[in-house]
Amino acid sequence: ECKLGLTTSDGQPLALRAAWKNEQHEHHKVAVAVIAQLFTYMQLWHLQYCFITSWFVTWLVHCPAHERHKLYVSKPLMSGTSSGRQPEATAMGSVAWLQSQALRTMHVQVAPYLPPPAASDAGGADHGPQGEGSEQPDAGAEPGSDSSYAPSSPRKQGSSSRGHSAGSAQPADAPYSHAASLQLVAPGAVVLLDRICTGDAGTVVHAVYQGAPAVVKLFGPDSPAQAAYRRELQAYQRFQGQQGHLLPVMLGAGYLAPGVRFIALSVVDGQPLASLAPDIPKAVCAAALCALTSLHGIDGFVHGDVHLGNIMVVRKDSADDTAATCVLLDFGRSRFNATPDEQQQEAKTLQRLLCA
Description:
The protein has a five-stranded antiparallel sheet. Strands 1, 2, 3 and 4 form a four-stranded antiparallel sheet that branches. It has a three-stranded antiparallel sheet with strand order 12-13-14. Strand 8 and strand 9 form a beta hairpin. The protein is α+β, with helices and mostly antiparallel strands. Helix 5 packs antiparallel against helix 6. It has three domains: 106 residues, no CATH class; 76 residues, Phosphorylase Kinase, domain 1, CATH 3.30.200.20; 85 residues, Transferase(Phosphotransferase), domain 1.
């Protein structure tokens, strides 16, 4: 269920595919966030059929078993409408049809989606940021009728569909590669439990990593998510000596499923500063500023997304705030080689938040 507004200013459903394709579209970021998150889930759980629902409108989504680099997105389906003598498909009827399709194809083995490796993926490992990637699925066609929702006949992976019109049932090919050198995490090494939150770049879940409790961040195949993954990975690599006291311990990182990267972190036994506001103890405020400025002292670091939800306080003694320490989270917007002025501005921003 999408809680983002998927309607235009005049109340009409968004053209998700058009918004996804056009970076200048006013709803482009929303479309990318919704489609990329759904694509991530479909790859992780080997799903072929899903749907997006937001208030009174629903979209059906299909990721073919043997063309995992594509998504087919239906036209928006209203909660219940008809047009003259020609009845239109309702959301309930369409979802029922979707369920029947899923049951009919549940025996089909789903092939993996393997994005083309970036320069940092050589040899099967991602060793840090190498610039913005372009790994994102094709949003698929937005056909004009239910009958053209899915392709009538499967095509071989990698075959070209260029030349089809925008209204065609066949989407243009997305970048695709078998990328045999990419190494996926061993089956069972990561067990996903319940969702904690979903942000701009991905989803955070409680998990078990190699038998130990962990927090796992999932990054989808879209370019913003992949850039956030590389920035976060770089931060943990640069801050190896600070892990465990100024930031969580990174337990592992890589491909959880083809097209989906992950970072597994240790569980921080604390609470976010946002839960203490507006009466944050002075000693805790000092610990938060100390944690941030300590990281500022390494390679010109700036966090890029400082707010009270991204800092956790760890109390060794619940009755003594002077013994509290703070841990920073979420480095998806961080960067290095910032100027001293930029670092000072970030410290002032945190100070204002702590005093608010």
